[in-house]
Amino acid sequence: MPNSEIDALNKAIRKEWPSKPGEKAKIYVGKFFNRVRIGSKVVAQVVGNHGTYTVSIHATELTTKSACSCYIGKGGYCHHCAALAATFLNNPDSFVEKTTKNLSDVKGMTDVNEFLQSVTLESLLAQLKEKGISQKAFAASIGMSTQHLSSVKSGELNNRFYHELGATKLACLWVLEHYGEINKGGK
Ligand SMILES: [Zn+2]
């Protein structure tokens, strides 16, 4: 089963980066650490010219989304992304597979962190929406502007992490859990 996800990544990467990494990318190939694969998404870090960058490639059925936290990497077109692509093709097994945790698996404080890292704010907000809670209503409920909530959400997808990301996810989870309770109580 995990092989199909590796295959999907392989295929997507070959399509997105058809040629060998250029001079600027070459120096980063193989230099990545904290290599992780969650399904068909790989994330790793590399030390660049201005600090450590978080770089990711996500192959979905429709598109390949890459992102890097360097100053030009927002859309995924930087040499760090190209280098991560080549690093994965060279050594896919060096990426440690992480499975998405279920909320019921969370037993201690270290699990909280792992769980929060395995879900995106985007997916949590989508779950809220399914329950009829809009992004605007949720933002208002925690005293955050809708624009800022949007920034925190898209920041995560572009590997630009806001300090309040984890706390915002926890707030989503709280609402998700208690909204059900409130509904049940009302019946
Ligand atoms: Zn970059």
Give a brief description:
With 187 residues, the protein is of the alpha+beta class. Helices cover 49% and strands 16% of the residues.
Overview of the structural elements:
The protein is of the alpha+beta class. The protein has two domains: 2-97, no CATH class; 103-186, no CATH class. It has eight helices and five strands, in the order ααββββαβααααα. It has helices at 2-16, 23-26, 79-90, 109-118, 121-130, 135-141, 146-157, 165-186, and strands at 33-38, 41-48, 51-59, 64-68, 96-97. Helix 5 (121-130) runs parallel beside helix 8. The longest helix is centred in the C-terminal third of the chain and has 22 residues, at 165-186. The structure holds zinc ion. The site of zinc ion has 6 residues, from loops.
Number of helices: 8
Rg from C-alpha positions?
A: 18 Å
Heteromolecules bound: zinc ion
Outline the biggest β-sheet: 5 strands, mixed
The overall average pLDDT, rounded, is 90
Helices and strands, in order, run as HHEEEEHEHHHHH
Shape: globular
Give me the secondary-structure category.
alpha+beta
> Uncertain spans, ≥5 residues at pLDDT below 50?
none
What's the domain count?
Answer: 2
Layout of strands and helices, then pairs:
Elements: H1 2-16, H2 23-26, E1 33-38, E2 41-48, E3 51-59, E4 64-68, H3 79-90, E5 96-97, H4 109-118, H5 121-130, H6 135-141, H7 146-157, H8 165-186
Parallel strand pairs: 1-5
Antiparallel strand pairs: 1-2, 2-3, 3-4
Helix pairs in contact: 5-8
The protein binds zinc ion (ZN).
